[in-house]
Amino acid sequence: MPGIDEVARLAGVSAATVSRALSGRGSVSPATRERVSEAATELGYVVSSNASSLASGRTRNVGIVVPFLNRWFYTAVLEGAQSALLSHGYDLTLYNLRGDAERRSVFEDFLLRKRVDAVIAVSLELTSEEVARLLNLKKPIVGVGGPLPGIRTLSVDDVAISRLATEHLISLGHRAIAHIGGDAEFEMDFHVPTNRRVGYEQALTSAGIPLDPARYAPSNFSLEGGYHAAKQLLGDPRTRPTAVFAASDEMAFGTILAARDLGMRVPDDLSVVGVDNHAYAEFFGLTTIAQFPELQGRSAVEVLMDELQPHTRTIDTLNTPLPFELMVRSTTARAV
Amino acid sequence: MPGIDEVARLAGVSAATVSRALSGRGSVSPATRERVSEAATELGYVVSSNASSLASGRTRNVGIVVPFLNRWFYTAVLEGAQSALLSHGYDLTLYNLRGDAERRSVFEDFLLRKRVDAVIAVSLELTSEEVARLLNLKKPIVGVGGPLPGIRTLSVDDVAISRLATEHLISLGHRAIAHIGGDAEFEMDFHVPTNRRVGYEQALTSAGIPLDPARYAPSNFSLEGGYHAAKQLLGDPRTRPTAVFAASDEMAFGTILAARDLGMRVPDDLSVVGVDNHAYAEFFGLTTIAQFPELQGRSAVEVLMDELQPHTRTIDTLNTPLPFELMVRSTTARAV
DNA sequence: CTGAAAGCGCTAACAT
DNA sequence: ATGTTAGCGCTTTCAG
User: Positive or negative CA dihedral for A218, A223, A228, A233?
Assistant: First the structure.
């Protein structure tokens, strides 16, 4: 492992120049820069991130905090963020909060070690103390997926998404439209559910369809939860809805399976629409609202990079609202 | 952000003593240790990992390299590893290889920055050059899930797993047992498929059941892939198997859905067994072989910790073969 | 058991 | 554009 001095010697310059040439900060003549690069590759030199960080105060590393790993949405955001960071030359340190002890130590120790230049918080509901600790870092922070008080957040417009989903069903002639959303417990961590429900209700109201509490089933965003909620909703043939809007694709899959088990055909007897465009959505032919979580991760990184290195920005993701898109497949059809 | 000197001043000792007291290396009297800890908490002091790493050569950070994030197995391993690392006070830097450019820079730049004390490679098929680079780091490395030439690896016994799965079917009286495994392309990244097929064939042969190439369908370990492979296998009613052993739960789910679509009942007309104990397995009532990927991640960390801090080890995960377990649910039944 | 002193390997003024 | 000089904030000999 050669050090900067050996590169300097080989290139016939000082260590300072090597540093400048390799990092791109400060001016170096093209010729020297070239010689330095060659010397560096020849020796297989790679800067020691610790020494560099200590001296410069920059770590080229961002922390990303997620509540779980085992849900499709988080890993997709993570992939987007990871790949964007890599292309900017940044490392990504992962903090998974699954568990109270872990949660405490992440906020009270790990994030304070000055190992990160910035933090991305994914779909987290944080206590005010946790938010305070984050802000105390005096580092750029951006949230993805859920509004955090005092922290800038990238989120899709959940109300608009569910309005769109519901309007799609209405436009197909459905009026008996049920909704499977989140329950109180789930709300704690996401507060996405409420927004989705609001959009659903707005759409119904605009269409002059009265709201019916019996058409709402709380669930937990999982396949299994969706299955049980759907059974509940579809069980009574006299009150059966003709369409279900599920607040996540996984719950929509559960709904499709429940409908089959009840002998209903999708979409003939029941239309189903979800939200996410999950990896399985195409397989199930699920009509859904895509929300591009990878892009969300990517955008979060762009926002941070813009703060970290103000001139480097390529595209203006900062003021673009996050996109979503209705993907019409084969689980929705005209009401009979 | 207070520095070590302020803590030293408040505790009335030198910076060296603070360092010793807080890190646990070198001897400090209990009384002093106590005073130092108090001073540290009072000031909210947390060591700067960069300064510490630079001075000590230890980073308290391990890198984990995965080929994808969007498969259940990887995130499960990741969760296990993350949580184990956290409890040891280590950070986890994630490298996701999805893409050639990314792959190159991970191996040629990122891993060389001396930011990690050790590396975990998950289910990776590496070129010999990549392996060489890893070994060149002179850092502890452990693989999870696939044998890497020259690198110690933790893997379940895939042959034994699939022998068990197949024997379970045989013991239920099945003789027409099909297998859905990996295809050539997939083999590149995992080489798990071959082992699974070997176990399947061993079990059949031991039971005196002749192998039939028509009973094997290659696929790609996905739900969709399993679905199509199963349709192929089950399509002809005259040659239909009475049981299917799928090399992953996702493919098993696909098989179940394909069977339904063909009007077959599971397990009455068809028994299905998978491998993984995927999060959805219980929902589908799938009989499967659990392989505890979280534990695999956890064990990988224990192995590394054992090298990094030789005396600290709690349990002996080093010489224990990785466990797997047949979970009998409701997709397997006696052959009719 | 504790303190003083010498770096770890780089970067950032400040000169030139 | 480049070199010189101080550190960045800790850890670790080495003394005592």
Answer: positive
Q: What is the rounded distance in angstroms from the CA atom of residue A301 to the CA atom of residue A312?
A: 12
Taking C1' of C11 and every protein CA, the nearest residue is A55
Q: How far apart are CA B283 and CA A39, in angstroms?
A: 59
Sign, Cα dihedral of B98, B108, B112, A26: negative
How do strand B216-219 and strand B61-66 relate by DSSP bridges?
unpaired
Report, as an integer, the average pLDDT of A245-262. Answer: 97
Q: Beta-carbon neighbour count of residue A316 at 10 Å?
A: 9
Q: What is the pLDDT of residue B101?
A: 79
B283 to A110: CB separation less than 8 angstroms, yes or no: no
**Among residues 220-279 of chain B, which lie with CB inside 8 Å of chain A?**
223-224, 227, 260, 279
For residue range B132-172, list pLDDT tens digits in order: 989 988 999 999 987 788 889 998 999 999 999 999 999 99
| CB contact A46 to B (< 8 Å) | yes
Chain-centre distance for alpha carbon B152? 14
Put simply, the answer to whether A82 touches B70 (Cβ < 8 Å) is no
A22 touches strand C (CB under 7 A): yes
Strand C closer than 7 A to residue A36 Cβ: no
Q: Is the CB of B26 under 7 A from strand C?
A: yes
SS3 B77: helix
* Residue B88 to residue B82: CA distance in whole angstroms: 10
Q: How many helices (H) and strands (E) does chain A have?
A: 14, 11
Residue whose Cα is closest to the C1' of D5: A16
Terminal CA-CA length for chain A: 73
Q: What is the pLDDT of residues B89-108, one digit of tens each?
A: 999 999 999 877 789 999 98
Q: Where would I find the beta strands (DSSP E) of chain B?
A: 61-66, 91-96, 118-122, 141-144, 153-154, 177-182, 216-219, 243-246, 271-276, 287-290, 325-327
Q: At what angle do helices A249-261 and A223-234 cross, to 10 degrees?
A: 50
Contact B20, B32 (CB under 8 A): no
Indicate if the pLDDT at residue B119 is higher than 80: yes
Contact A306, A313 (CB under 8 A): yes
- Given a cut of 70, whether residue A316 has pLDDT beyond it is no
Which two tokens mark A333? 């059809």
| Residue A57: CB less than 7 A from any atom in strand C | yes
By the 8 A CB rule, do B156 and B188 touch?
A: no
Distance of CA B196 to the CA centre of its chain: 16
Residue found by looking up tokens 């568990």 in the block: A99
In the numeric block, which tokens belong to residue A331?
């689980």
Helix, coil or strand: residue B66:
strand
Task: Report whether B145 contacts B75 (CB < 8 A).
Answer: no
pTM for the predicted model, two decimal places: 0.93
Contacts with B25 (C-beta within 8 Å, 6 or more apart), sequence order: none
Positions of chain D reached by protein Cβ under 7 A: 1-5, 7-13
How far apart are alpha carbons B159 and B121 in whole angstroms? 21
Which residue, chain included where needed, has tokens 């990504």? A92
